[in-house]
Design brief:
This protein starts with a helix and ends with a helix. About 0% of the residues have low confidence. By secondary structure, the chain is an alpha+beta fold. Strand 6 and strand 7 form a beta hairpin. It has 14 helices and 7 strands. The protein is about 70% helix and about 10% strand.
């Protein structure tokens, strides 16, 4: 290599380095100018109080800065490639387009977030804003993905064809769509729930509570079935019918679950309104039993099991099972008679003079009735027992009776009529005594050591604790009346009558 060749090479290298340095310097200057311009623009926007301009600047400020750096880096890379290797120019152009597209998508994503934040501060409906922002972000992501495919010169027909890399794209797309639908339904459910909560009509709220969660799970399961169907077509087509059966069973199970939750919500609502718990639970159990039958029969059809054969077998099998489980059937029909005859309901205080049964009814099932005794022990009574025993229901008493006897000394016999008149007047004027019921105050008997009179009356209350307070007050007032007449209750006494005294005792 002679001197002229070395000089020419040096001049070429110098020119290349000068171009590269110029690209770097220009990129830095443009970035600094944009930074200063952005700050100036922010000040002007604050003075004008234009919030939409602030949102745009906040969203695209940093992405534009990134675009400047990408353009500068692409310029520098092209200068370097022209000098070293022209084969990578296509790669550089492709990378530049991808980066630019991602920065634009990032800017729009930030814009959606900024607008969402601004609208939430103005107390707009949170559910609608959140749902709308998620849908916009999903659209932005889809546009970015399609633009990337266009840059890579991948057609949609190739993308959605089965086999190779297109299978992976379709599988991923199925999962993404399922996740997006699940999130959208979750946001919509929250929005509808808040809207319904502002109204007095609670039936839509009950429907939403029943179907909200099952629908969310159904979306996820159907998405997984979609993914499994795509995978099966690529790997093993034999399991596609099984996936279809699973999809149908999932839909049936989701509907049954939703209706079951709705029945529970209706029960809670009716109980909160003060309706009879026994009736509410009976209707709820019948509805659930009906739902179970309506779900089992279609499930048999989906699985390919003949329902007619099952019914024929069920008739014969029912006879055998009925003979083997007569006690169980007796308890079941006993529960039906309890629901029909209504001798007691949940919350009632019952007792049986035939059996040692006394307590508060907690629940009435198809087999057992649970009674909480007064010492707080649970008592499980088979329903068939109530068909053979007598049952008292003190909870349905209209009044409680006071029946007490008082003994007055024989020496106070002349005061008895006045005492009885005052006691009768006290009972008639007592606020807790029901004067419309039987009221008796009479001399009852000549006892061994007292003149006995009794009171027979009824209280207005049926509460057991309050009844005893009233009874105590009545008895104390009766005692005061006796003492007011300078009489007293008799003690058990005996009188010894001696006709004559022996001579030995007289001399002593």
């Amino acid at each position: 290599m002679d001197w002229d060749q070395l000089k020419e090479l040096a001049q070429q290298n110098y020119e290349w380095l000068w171009q590269a340095g110029l690209a770097i310097l220009a990129t830095v200057i443009i970035a600094l100018v944009w930074r200063a311009f952005r700050k100036r623009l922010q000040g002007l926007i604050r003075q004008s109080k234009q919030r939409w301009g602030h949102s745009l600047l906040k969203a695209f400020g940093i992405p534009i800065n990134g675009m400047i750096l990408v353009v500068g880096a692409t310029w520098l890379a092209e200068i370097t490639a022209h000098h070293l290797s022209k084969d990578i120019l296509n790669v550089i152009a492709l990378s530049s387009e991808i980066c630019t597209m991602l920065l634009v998508a990032w800017g729009f994503w930030r814009l959606v977030s900024s607008l969402e934040e601004r609208l939430l501060k103005k107390e707009f409906d949170t559910g609608v804003i959140t749902l709308s922002s998620r849908i916009l972000r999903l659209i932005i992501t889809a546009v970015a993905v399609l633009s990337s495919l266009h840059i890579f010169e991948i057609s949609l027909s190739e993308l959605f064809s089965f086999g190779g890399i297109s299978f992976l794209w379709k599988a991923a797309l199925s999962l993404a769509i399922s996740l997006g639908l699940a999130l959208s339904w979750l946001s919509l459910r929250k929005y509808v729930g808040r809207t319904i909560g502002k109204n007095q009509n609670r039936w839509p709220d009950i429907a939403l509570k029943g179907f909200g969660v099952p629908i969310n799970w159904l979306i996820i399961i159907l998405g997984l079935c979609w993914f499994a169907d795509i995978s099966a077509r690529h790997f093993s087509a034999e399991i596609i019918p099984d996936i279809s059966i699973f999809r149908k069973l999932s839909i049936l199970a989701a509907i049954a679950w939703a209706v079951w939750r709705m029945i529970n919500a209706v029960e809670i609502k009716q109980l909160a309104q003060g309706n009879d718990p026994t009736t509410v639970q009976l209707i709820g159990k019948i509805a659930k039993l009906t739902l179970g039958v309506m779900v089992i029969l279609p499930a048999f059809q989906i699985l390919g099991i003949a329902v007619s054969g099952m019914l024929a077998f069920g008739g014969m099998g029912g006879l055998i099972v009925g003979m083997a489980s007569k006690d169980l059937l007796a308890n079941f029909f006993g529960s039906i008679m309890i629901y029909l005859d209504r001798p007691f309901k949940i919350g009632d205080w019952i007792r049986s003079p035939d059996r040692e049964i006394e307590g508060t009814v907690e629940s009435i099932g198809f087999r057992l009735t649970i009674i909480r005794t007064f010492d707080k022990r649970p008592l499980y009574v088979p329903n068939s027992a109530f068909t053979n025993i007598s049952v008292e229901n003190p909870s349905r008493m209209k009044n409680r009776r006071i029946k007490e006897t008082f003994g007055v000394r024989y020496e106070d016999a002349k005061k008895i009529p006045a005492i009885l008149d005052d006691v009768r007047s006290m009972l008639e004027q007592h606020d807790d005594i029901d004067v419309n019921q039987t009221l008796i105050v009479n001399l009852n008997s000549f006892a061994a050591s007292s003149l006995d009179f009794f009171i027979y009356t009824f209280t207005k209350t049926t509460d057991w604790v309050q009844y005893h307070h009233i009874k105590q007050d009545v008895m104390l007032q009766v005692l005061n009346i006796i003492h007011k007449h300078e009489a007293d209750c008799a003690f058990p006494t005996q009188t010894l009558h001696i006709d004559s005294i022996p001579d030995s005792l007289e001399k002593s």
